[in-house]
Amino acid sequence: MSGAAETAGVIAPPxxxxxxxxxxxxxxxxxxxxxxxxxxxxLPAAAVVLVAGLALVAVCFRRFKAADTNVPTWMPTTxxxxxxxxxxxxxxxxxxxxxxxxxxxxFWGSLWxxxxxxxxxxVMRYGVIGREERYLEARFGDAYxxxxxxxxxWL
Length: 155
Description:
Elements: H1 14-31, H2 42-66, H3 92-108, H4 111-140, H5 142-150
């Protein structure tokens, strides 16, 4: 990997970005309440979405462990993971974090965390995913380019 960075150099660890956005949404809701409409399905839907996100994270982590590569973005990637959920999305961990975020936002019952999801996803796209894509291309070359051309970024 001559000349390539040892890590992707993302702006912050993705879980920190998601948690920060969620906390900002809760703070905004405490200052300027914007409750979601009360609906009998809100809490069950929140539970399903949250559990789906957490389950997907677990599957992805197992894939990384099986490939003997690192999950944290501040550590070098030692293998290209392309199986399991990575056959459908190049970023299933970020999809999982988004699902977990949505589940927690629904549990909280405020519009604010949902409003902040759009800017969060922009930060993820440009401050995390874009940097990871450049890093992976530099690190794995043609193998990553072939993977990128055959699997969508999100879904």
